[in-house]
Design a protein that fits this description.
Helix content is 0%, strand content 52%. By secondary structure, it is an all-beta fold. It starts with a strand and ends with a strand.
């Protein structure tokens, strides 16, 4: 059964960099899927932050993270990464990954997420 395992969260200072990872387990032909990171900030709904297809010719970034975050993937390791630079307190939240289609999450079963807290 497909499932996602996020890791790499932590407490970081504003202005610093951090990388989150997500293992997409039990996937076959992962290269066929667009993978995405979502963020659930305190008191807010989960929203897509970034997504990337296998060919790296289709990417999406939430306006507030453009120029600071970079999504990447290693299909051989069935892992997707989110490099976060110049972190700001408003980046605080639980980060999740999922495959997407039409911009919407493909799987109803989410991982536990990884908490990123940015302090001033």
């Amino acid at each position: 059964q497909v499932h996602f395992v996020e890791s790499g969260g932590g407490l970081v200072q504003a202005g610093s960099s951090h990388r989150a990872s997500c293992a997409a387990n039990a996937f076959s032909n992962l290269e066929l899927y667009v993978l995405a990171w979502f963020r659930e900030a305190p008191g807010k709904q989960r929203e897509p932050v970034s997504c990337l297809n296998s060919g790296y010719n289709m990417t999406y970034y939430l306006d507030s993270v453009k120029g600071r975050f970079t999504i990447s993937r290693d299909d051989a390791k069935t892992t997707v990464y989110l490099q976060m630079n110049s972190l700001q307190p408003e980046d605080t939240g639980v980060y999740f990954c999922n495959a997407v289609k039409g911009g919407l999450p493909l799987y109803k079963s989410w991982g536990q997420g990884t908490q990123v807290t940015v302090s001033t």
